[in-house]
From TrEMBL:
<dbReference type="InterPro" id="IPR029479">
    <property type="entry name" value="Nitroreductase"/>
</dbReference>
<keyword id="KW-0560">Oxidoreductase</keyword>
<comment type="similarity">
    <text>Belongs to the nitroreductase family.</text>
</comment>
<dbReference type="Pfam" id="PF00881">
    <property type="entry name" value="Nitroreductase"/>
</dbReference>
<protein>
    <submittedName>
        <fullName>Nitroreductase</fullName>
    </submittedName>
</protein>
<feature type="compositionally biased region" description="Polar residues">
    <location>
        <begin position="73"/>
        <end position="85"/>
    </location>
</feature>
<feature type="domain" description="Nitroreductase">
    <location>
        <begin position="21"/>
        <end position="206"/>
    </location>
</feature>
<dbReference type="InterPro" id="IPR000415">
    <property type="entry name" value="Nitroreductase-like"/>
</dbReference>
<keyword id="KW-0285">Flavoprotein</keyword>
<keyword id="KW-0288">FMN</keyword>
<dbReference type="GO" id="GO:0016491">
    <property type="term" value="F:oxidoreductase activity"/>
</dbReference>
<feature type="region of interest" description="Disordered">
    <location>
        <begin position="73"/>
        <end position="94"/>
    </location>
</feature>
Length: 230
């Protein structure tokens, strides 16, 4: 799809349009998202499928002063300690995936005006995860389930529902594994029980206009390379 034809500032009128226009937004307007819109998105997302209707998700929507407090705690933790996620992050990938990941990093840093060799600038860019890229609302997804492959699939289905429903409302999102990097900080700030695992989160809000970062749309492999019809 021609990158110039992609609009992220209008509502998506169909599922296809939401799929075509959805991509990770890394700069947001300060405008707050009305609570009724957030409630509508996440209530609809509860219709997502799950193994035997197990519904392994819980959702925590954080705005205002609580968002600011949590952002400061997570940023300070990221500056002073290593991540301690409750779900193991992948450590190895096939060679073709590694190439796509490297290319993505190079292009994102390029759009952001960061030299790949500038570690200080790269680290500062990474820390923006914990200010939710300026989004007025952060969302944390938690679960009391023992984590396994199928619970992961269920949570992925729920997350995709949220991303597409947000586009229907004219909103941008950025799903972030980084928001599960310091679960103790999140648990303390949101007063969660110990058995409730902090899996990941997302930033959500109105995409900032005239943003080069927001105009960047990651490519996908050709359908013929990934899909076989028998």
């Amino acid at each position: 799809m021609n990158q110039e034809l992609i609009s992220i500032h209008e509502v998506a009128k169909t599922v296809t349009e939401a799929m075509d226009t959805r991509h990770s937004i890394r700069e947001y307007e300060s405008k707050e998202v009305p609570q009724e819109i957030l409630q509508r998105i996440f209530t609809k997302a509860l219709r997502s499928p799950s193994w035997k209707n197990s519904q392994p998700w819980k959702v925590h929507i954080v705005s205002g002063e609580k968002r600011k407090e949590l952002s400061e705690a997570l940023t300070n933790a990221a500056k002073s300690s290593s991540p301690t996620p409750e779900t193991g992050w992948p450590e190895s990938y096939p060679s073709d995936a590694k190439k796509r990941m490297f290319d993505l990093g190079m292009k994102i840093y390029g759009v952001a005006g960061i030299d790949r060799k500038d570690k200080e600038a790269r680290d500062e860019f990474m820390l923006r995860n914990f200010s939710f890229f300026g989004a007025p609302t952060a969302v944390f997804i938690t679960s009391k389930f023992d984590l396994n492959f199928f619970v992961g699939i269920d949570l992925g289905c729920f997350l995709q529902s949220v991303l597409l429903l947000a586009r229907e409302e004219g909103l941008g999102t950025c799903p972030q594994a980084a928001l599960g990097a310091f679960p103790v900080m999140v648990r303390n700030a949101l007063d969660l029980p110990n058995e409730e695992k902090v899996i990941m989160g997302l930033s959500i809000g109105y995409p900032k206009a005239n943003s080069d970062l927001n105009r960047y749309h990651t490519p996908r492999e050709e359908a013929n390379d990934l899909i076989r019809v028998y």
